[in-house]
Amino acid sequence: MEETKSSSKPVVVVDDVHVTYEVYGTGKKARSAGAKLAKQARMREVRAVKGVSFVVYEGETVGIVGSNGSGKSSLMRAIAGLFPATKGAVFTLGRATMLGVGAALLPNLSGEKNIMLGGLAMGYEKKELAEATASIVDFSGLKEFIDLPMRTYSQGMSARLRFSIAASKKHDILIIDEALAVGDRQFRLKAEEKIRQMRQEAGAVLLVSHNMKSIQDTCNRVIWLEKGELVMDGKPKEVCDAFIAFMEKGEDD
Amino acid sequence: MNLSDFAKSNGLKIIGTRPSFFEYLKQVWAGRDFAFTMSLYASESANARTRLGRWWLILTPSLQALAYGLVFGLILGSLRPENFIPFLITGVFLFSFFSGSFSSGAKSITSSSGLLKTVSFPRILLPLSAVLREFINFLPQLGLLLLVMLIFRQELTWDWLYLIPITLLMFLFSTGLAMISARLTVQLKDLGKLIPFVTRFMFYTSGIFFEVERVFSSYPEVLAVALLNPVHAFISLARGALINDLSMNTSLWIIASLWSVGTFLFGVLFFWRAEARYGRD
Questions:
Q1: In total, how many domains does chain B have?
Q2: How far apart are CA A124 and CA A130, in angstroms?
Q3: What's the CATH code, domain A1-16+54-99+171-253?
Q4: Cβ <8 Å between A91 and B14
Q5: Where are the domains of chain A?
Q6: B136 part of a folded domain
Q7: Is residue B22 in a domain?
């Protein structure tokens, strides 16, 4: 358990947030030929988040746990402003950013050009980025490969470059969705250290992970979501223990 | 005090709502470097693995022009326009910019779900960047086009400079169309399937390899509609600028300008209205 610098100043307020997706139906079993035709254009609603509320204060690192499909990522996207809440509202002080630029990168281009592209996607100014490039390359430890197209990189190497680009910028509120499993052990330690450092600089950090150890190592509060609803919100050990007990019970059934 | 009031009284701002139009334009301006770099690199990346690389940017439309030239040159016979090769190449090259912009613009949101899920930026940068990429690809074709004109003994005149406003108008029109079709394909995926047919139809009606005035001369109503077609207007103006025997018709300038400015302005507004919706599926 790490020491915290939490204050009473709110930086994220999640007020009764609902996230609903509209899906065109191919999700149901066809019962007969007639039913098959009828379902062709049927629209289904998937309610990923159903009325979640909480407040994150300055300096907090909040872990988000829950089984697959519990609405964690949908909630994070709502907080980052990527997919707005269908009902309810999210308020932030400054901008919440997801740690991840992978989707902006082009495998056919060199690592260096991808730093340019990923950096601009993260909201860097061109000049600022030119100054930061050297330290990004440095942190990734890919100096000799930086002129090669990214498609020639191993999975671990690409992950290192992606992390280095995303982690190079200061963020008001940082959302990390399963990003800690990057590269080899040596780089992973470096990445964890970097995240700790970013936490000091950011207003708050939200960390989504299935790794209970890394959650307990880095967070000072944990929120547990299940089926789109908030189940528990409290001290890391208590919530993680309850969550693990719930998961094990599920396995026995 | 409820949570919303608590947030507001502490200076927090609501997020995930559509920004005001003015605010949106400011964000677009701030994202211009990202959009431009994305276009430039995507263009570079597209042919990076072929041996001829970026030569394909001019090889593809040249081969197209060759195929159409052989086929339609024979079929049309006496209806074949004069200066057939310069006439055809101008049509095929300009049309390939239009059709490329239309199809990549329409796909620009639906094909970027990964980006939409992780990075926040004004989404209009995606159709804009798609058209910009097509425009970057079009520049070498433009160079080749001028070269073909010289080879086929068209005199180099000041009129060639009219190509600048013509391509600019075409860029505006294509961007507007890309924004409109990008939003429509998000809200109704089925429309994506129709785009190739629309493009095909435009190809055969915009006078790429024939003169609409001659071919449609016995159907005055059809001709009147065909002359309102903006793609025909761009191509016809470009021919007027480049080919010595042809001239630029003032009414075509008016048609081209109205379509371009109108489509662009409508496109920006239309796309912005659904800003909070992109990527939600």
A1: 1
A2: 9
A3: 3.40.50.300
A4: yes
A5: 1-16+54-99+171-253, 103-169
A6: yes
A7: no
CA A12 to chain B, closest CA, distance in angstroms equals 8
Flag whether B7 is in a domain. no
Contacts of A61 (CB under 8 A, 6+ apart): A4, A199, A204, A205, A206, A207, A218, A219, A220, A221
- A66-102: burial string, b at 16+ Cβ within 10 Å, e else: beeebbbbbbbbbbbbbbbbbebbbbbbeebbbbbbb
Domain ranges, residue B201: 31-46+53-277
Any CB–CB contact under 8 A between B116 and chain A?
yes
Q: For the whole model, what pTM was predicted?
A: 0.87
| B72-119 residue pLDDT tens | 888 877 778 888 889 999 999 999 999 999 999 999 999 888 888 888
Question: In B, which residues are within 8 Å of A109 by CB distance?
Answer: 41, 44-45, 48
ipTM of the complex, rounded to two decimals: 0.82
In terms of Cβ atoms closer than 10 Å to its own Cβ (0-12, 13-18, 19+), residue A190 is buried
CB atoms near residue A222 (< 10 Å): 25
Q: Are A96 and B3 within 8 A, CB to CB? A: no
Asked whether residue B100 is domain-assigned, the answer is: yes
User: Which residue type is seen at B60?
Assistant: T
Q: Which of A11, A23, A120 sits opposite B37 (nearest CB)?
A: A120
Contact (CB<8Å) B13/A92: yes
Which pLDDT value is given to residue B162?
94
**Strand ranges inside chain A, DSSP E:** 10-24, 43-57, 61-65, 87-92, 96-98, 173-177, 204-208, 221-226, 229-234
**B250-273 and B163-187 are packed helices; what angle lies between their axes, rounded to 10 degrees?**
30
Minimal Cβ distance to A81: which of B16, B37, B280: B16
pLDDT band at A25 (very low <50, low <70, confident <90, very high): low
